[in-house]
Amino acid sequence: MSTSQPLEVWLRGPLPHVPPLLQPVAHALLQAREELNAALADFPPGLLNERPAGVASVGFHLQHLAGVLNRLLTYARSEPLSESQFADFNAETPPLPLTPDAVTRLVQRFNQEVEAALQQLSITAETSLAEVRGVGRAQVPSTVIGILTHAAEHTTRHLGQLLVTARWVKSLA
Question: Single GO molecular-function term (predicted)?
């Protein structure tokens, strides 16, 4: 790796205030945040709803990344989803209004959800990681560590799709 490029987050050492067993979750979320912010720094709002070959749009991924992270953290706390969370879920499917600040607002929302996740990780006791939590309307059983790990892997999966789609639609523009 070139010395001009920063190390990936997981290679920069432990994050203060995050329990050791939750470091990989925090590292993955921070890495996703860095990559998303860099990739979308100059992304044209007019391309948010583009779906080449029918793939999910950048706008969908941006909304979904923030929304799912928020919902999964709620499940990990063993709390029910609020009406506003259900409304966010129902609003994830574009088309989005293409305002000049749309990309900035969506990126800021994702950044805020990552910050909230880091705060939650910092106060999550390692002794609670095996506790059972219900997920979704059916309250499918999982564990705190299962939900938090899924939050990280789901974020990285959608980030990858977003990055490819963003490059694709920019190349077509």
Answer: hydrolase activity
Which tokens hold the place of 98? 């293409």
Q: Write down the pLDDT at residue 100.
A: 86
Q: Which two tokens stand for residue 79?
A: 């709390």
| pLDDT on residue 108 | 97
pLDDT at 22: 97
Q: Which helix (H) or strand (E) holds 22?
A: none
Core vs surface per residue 6-22: b (16+ CB within 10 A) or e: eeebeeeeebeebbeeb
Beta partners for residue 140, in sequence order: 135
Spell out the domain ranges in the chain: 23-172
Residue 44 CA to residue 77 CA, distance in Å, equals 36
Instruction: Report pTM.
Output: 0.91
Q: Nearest 10 degrees: CA dihedral of 25, 148, 122, 118?
A: 60
Is-contact 52 169, C-beta < 8 A?
Answer: yes
Per residue in 11-26, pLDDT (tens digit) is 999 999 999 999 999 9
- Which CATH code of 1.20.58.100, 1.20.120.450, 1.20.58.2050, 3.40.50.2300 fits the domain covering 23-172? 1.20.120.450
Rounded CA separation 115/118 (Å) = 5
Residue ranges in the chain whose pLDDT is less than 50? none
